[in-house]
């Protein structure tokens, strides 16, 4: 069987070649059109007032699905209020096309010539568009006598002030129409200027009338502190919002701007006497003690020191002087610092709770406390003073011993103000001369003549009485070597086989009495016993008893340790002492 072979004619060969060329050209044109297609940008208008919005449309052959677009370049001169997407797909003569449009609603931030920058989407970029933005027109009608629907009023109580002094900033926002998307601009700029800004309370709302128009008023109050001296201007405060209109779904934006305020901050005066700078409207210091307080041995009291500074924070109040004395134990809690906010600004309050427990008879003088501060109202330095207080600790007979020393408490130092009896020879000689004159009824004794025996006896008797009163005999008696006696002859006020009282003051008196009977000081107690006593005291005097609880088991442990301690240091009783050791 023969195979029939068909031969193409020259005309048929040319036709196939022409078709291939046309196909290649179509593909090239398609590729060129794809490469030439750029992101198209257009706006609904190029001239508009500041308080109106415009529409920006970006169209291109990009996919709307999982689209990531960066609109941050627009935020320099515009507010981006909204953006939405739409896609148009077509299939014509076997060709599929898709066109996506991104619609962005923009609002200008300022008047002038603004530029919508180039936007890039999936490698395609739009062209920049120039706009002309005119000043906003806040008037609802053309009547110039009609009040503006929005207004702002900013006041500063003391634009001429001192460094770190309080300034009260009051901002009032007025609106006579219904607005939404309200915004106040300028407060963040205060912090960027280096000012300390603190809001006072909640916003106040009320009504006020201006030009026969009733306004809804919102009042905001702030406290400002400037840390560096100099002259500067507060930033411009802008109150803006959108008023609903039929012309635009986003409404019409209204705004009001404040007038500039110049602030002058002066440095600390060179003649200010203290290292702690306290600029304020007022400063007061007080406590709850009388001028003179009497305590029995072992008694205690609380001293509450309160320092209030008006127009300043509590952190600027300095520490109170410490009390250091050998006749009284001092226990101080951590100070409480509180800042109270009111329409007058900040009021700082510092409270110091000090527990004082008497341990020896005597007299303690708490010196007066002085706190220098600067009055920002008068521009002068003043000193707040708390008068001195006297604390008398009575002995066993309910009176102060004649020779009890008077101590003045000062920071870190206790000063003894009373000299010992017959501290100088001239006083002793004067006493001897007066005694001899009163006994003989004649002129002073001649040193060349012998002194009568009866005079020596009387003089010795007088000296013995004086020495007995000053406690010298008891001191000598205590310092003599102990005669060996039975240990059971020691008389103690507390039977350590019995439980300690639940009251701290009663227990502390028993421990103090036992220490005196054994001629020991509190410092001789072991650390474990002192720690238990401190916890017992903290429960009684502490501001938070839950944090320093002292249980019955702790009190029993303290009793057992005291029993072991005093049994170890037991010695014969030598009677009560006039002078605590």
From TrEMBL:
Ranges where the record places region Disordered: 397-444
Q: Where are the transmembrane segments?
A: 454-474
Instruction: Cite the InterPro entries for this sequence.
Output: BatD (IPR025738)
Where along the chain is composition biased (Polar residues)? 400-410, 423-444
A Pfam family this chain is assigned to:
BatD
Under PANTHER family, the record lists:
PROTEIN BATD, PROTEIN BATD-RELATED
Query: What protein am I looking at?
Result: BatD family protein
Q: Give the source species.
A: Litoribrevibacter euphylliae
């Amino acid at each position: 069987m023969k195979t029939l072979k068909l031969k193409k004619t020259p005309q048929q060969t040319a036709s196939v070649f022409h078709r291939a060329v046309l196909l290649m050209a179509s593909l090239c044109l398609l590729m060129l059109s794809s490469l030439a297609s750029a992101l198209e940008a257009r706006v609904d208008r190029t001239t508009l007032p500041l308080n109106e919005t415009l529409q920006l449309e970006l169209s291109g052959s990009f996919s709307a699905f999982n689209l990531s677009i960066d609109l941050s370049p627009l935020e320099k001169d515009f507010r981006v209020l909204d953006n939405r997407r739409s896609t148009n797909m077509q299939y014509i003569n076997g060709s599929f096309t898709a066109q996506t449009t991104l619609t962005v609603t923009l609002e200008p931030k300022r008047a002038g010539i603004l530029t919508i920058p180039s936007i890039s989407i999936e490698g395609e970029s739009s062209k920049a568009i120039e706009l002309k933005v005119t000043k906003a027109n806040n008037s609802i009608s053309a009547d110039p006598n009609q009040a503006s629907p929005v207004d702002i009023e900013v006041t500063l109580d003391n634009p001429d002030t001192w460094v770190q002094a309080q300034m009260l900033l009051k901002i009032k926002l007025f609106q006579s129409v219904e607005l939404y998307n309200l915004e106040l601009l300028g407060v963040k700029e205060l912090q960027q200027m280096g000012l300390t800004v603190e809001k006072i309370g909640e916003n106040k709302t009320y009504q006020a009338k201006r030009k026969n128009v009733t306004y809804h008023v919102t009042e905001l109050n702030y406290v400002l502190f400037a840390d560096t001296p100099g002259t500067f201007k507060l930033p411009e405060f802008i109150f803006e919002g959108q008023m609903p209109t039929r012309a635009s779904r986003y409404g019409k934006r209204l705004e009001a701007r404040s007038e500039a305020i110049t602030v002058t901050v002066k440095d600390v005066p060179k003649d200010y006497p203290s290292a702690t700078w306290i600029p304020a409207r007022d400063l007061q210091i007080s406590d709850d003690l009388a001028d003179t307080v009497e305590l029995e041995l072992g008694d205690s009291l609380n001293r509450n020191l309160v320092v209030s500074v008006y127009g300043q924070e509590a952190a600027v109040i300095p520490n109170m002087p410490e009390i250091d004395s050998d006749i009284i134990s001092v226990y101080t809690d951590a100070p409480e610092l509180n800042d109270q906010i009111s329409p007058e600004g900040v009021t700082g309050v510092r409270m110091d709770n000090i527990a004082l427990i008497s341990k020896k008879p005597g007299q303690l003088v708490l010196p007066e406390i002085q706190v220098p501060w600067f009055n920002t109202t008068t521009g002068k330095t003043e000193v707040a003073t708390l008068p001195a207080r006297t604390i008398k600790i009575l002995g066993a007979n309910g009176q102060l011993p004649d020779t009890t020393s008077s101590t003045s408490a000062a920071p870190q130092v206790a000063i003894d103000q009373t000299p010992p009896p017959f501290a100088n020879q001239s006083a002793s000689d004067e006493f001897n001369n007066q005694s001899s004159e009163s006994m003989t009824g004649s002129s002073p004794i001649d040193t060349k003549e012998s002194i009568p025996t009866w005079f020596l006896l009387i003089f010795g008797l007088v000296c013995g009485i004086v020495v007995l009163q000053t406690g010298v005999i008891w001191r000598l008696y205590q310092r003599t070597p102990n005669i060996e006696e039975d240990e059971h002859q020691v008389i103690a006020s507390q039977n350590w086989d019995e439980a300690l009282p639940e009251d701290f003051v009663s227990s502390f008196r028993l421990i103090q009495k036992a220490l005196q009977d054994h001629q020991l000081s509190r410092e001789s107690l072991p650390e474990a016993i002192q720690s238990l006593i401190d916890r017992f005291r903290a429960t009684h005097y502490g501001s938070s008893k839950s944090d320093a609880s002292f249980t019955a088991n702790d009190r029993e442990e303290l009793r057992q340790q005291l029993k072991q301690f005093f049994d170890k240091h037991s010695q014969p009783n030598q009677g009560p002492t006039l002078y605590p050791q």
